[in-house]
TrEMBL record:
Keyword Isomerase part of the UniProt annotation: no
SUPFAM superfamilies: Glycerol-3-phosphate (1)-acyltransferase
UniProt protein name: 1-acyl-sn-glycerol-3-phosphate acyltransferase
Pfam families listed in its UniProt record: Acyltransferase
One example GO MF annotation: acyltransferase activity
Annotated region described as Disordered, given as residue ranges: 328-347
Keywords: Acyltransferase, Lipid biosynthesis, Lipid metabolism, Transferase
């Protein structure tokens, strides 16, 4: 059993990813008062309403800095601090020096080259919730592959349009080649595109398998891939699942939970860049190993990772931590029943 989650189900087709994560996965966390929640919500609304105007009047060469600044402020209005860990520590083929290190809060601009400069980059990470987009954009602006109806979401919909989101209808398998082609065209044009290859959201302690389809865009264009390990920590530095957009969550219920949280940190870990190679499945395996913080296994080596079977999806055993530090267990609260489940970008 994984955090009291029900078995995974697939309602459209066998390829369609599904997650067994649900309300039982969600942690309790320190909360702020109603006045602080209202102030945060006002800040979010102000940023999202002013961004289109600011983006239109500022010179094109300065828009990337503006967009990153807005994303960073938005993350702060959601009650989160940004922490960036650069594990690349190498010089890539474009001559960009990555010295490594840890960057907190307003020093995000000190991260060498962000996700990369001088050409297209495919950014891949696990998918926890809609806040993932804000956290990644706080490091460096990029486009995303996102669920098609995201443009209808309150507040975030307009932002999705400005970020030139590539829509995906995950229920329609026949549209997938067109999405891959759109990603390839954007990469070939030198853009940074973020994708969530798990195809759906997970709580952050259990994980899905990275599907190889979207990696084909990097293979076709010879574009480097930047694996990113993203997680959320509470004020004590313990991984928490509050931003998880799972189960019966709606956007409103998820936003309410995030806005009430106190002291959360969005930690973005930049792992070594992967060359695309010629096999999208092998590339997906390498990136999954990097995102999970484990060494990529040899083809002839026995698999040592413990997995829990969950319907159509393998779930990593949450009792096996990928970090050396001890994960402190806390009592979990069960949120009240919510409406029909929403999903985050690119489920």
């Amino acid at each position: 059993m994984v955090f009291d989650a029900p078995p995974a189900t697939s309602t459209a087709h066998a390829w369609m990813p599904s997650s067994p994560c649900g309300p039982g996965c969600l942690d309790s966390i320190d909360e702020v008062g109603s006045a602080r929640v209202i102030a945060r919500l006002a800040g979010v609304a102000g940023l999202l309403l002013s961004f289109p105007v600011a983006n239109a009047v500022i010179p094109r060469g300065r828009r990337a800095s503006l967009q990153r600044g807005y994303a960073h402020l938005l993350l702060g209005c959601l009650g989160m601090r940004l922490r960036i860990v650069d594990n690349r520590g190498a010089v890539d083929e474009r001559g960009v020096v990555d010295e490594g290190g840890v960057v907190d809060e307003g020093d995000a601009a000190l991260v060498p080259a962000g996700f990369g400069t001088g050409g297209g980059v495919l950014v891949v990470t696990g998918h926890i919730g809609w806040t993932d987009i804000v956290a990644l954009a706080s490091v460096q602006p990029l486009g995303f592959v996102a669920r098609a109806d995201m443009v209808d979401w309150p507040l975030l919909g307009k932002l999705a349009e400005l970020m030139r989101v590539i829509p995906i209808e995950r229920e329609s398998l026949r549209q997938l080649p067109g999405v891959v082609a759109a990603v390839a065209a954007r990469l070939a044009a030198g853009e940074r595109i973020g994708v969530f290859p798990e195809g759906t959201t997970w709580c952050g302690r259990a994980y899905g398998i990275m599907r190889p389809a979207l990696f084909q865009a990097a293979v076709d264009t010879g574009t480097p891939v930047q694996p990113v390990r993203l997680r959320y920590l509470d004020r004590h530095g313990v991984p928490c699942t509050v931003p998880g957009f799972v189960g019966v969550d709606t956007f409103v219920s998820s936003a309410r939970r995030v806005l009430r949280s106190r002291g959360m940190v969005a930690e973005v870990v930049l792992e070594p860049v992967q060359r695309p190679g010629t096999d999208r499945r092998e590339l997906a395996r390498r990136c999954e190993a990097a995102v999970r913080g484990v060494a990529s296994p040899r083809q002839d080596a026995p698999e040592t990772t413990k997995w829990i079977e969950a319907g159509h999806t393998r779930v990593r055993d949450p009792s096996v931590s990928v970090d050396a530090v001890e994960v402190v267990r806390r009592p979990r609260s069960r949120p009240a029943s919510r409406g029909r489940r929403g999903t985050a970008a690119a489920r």
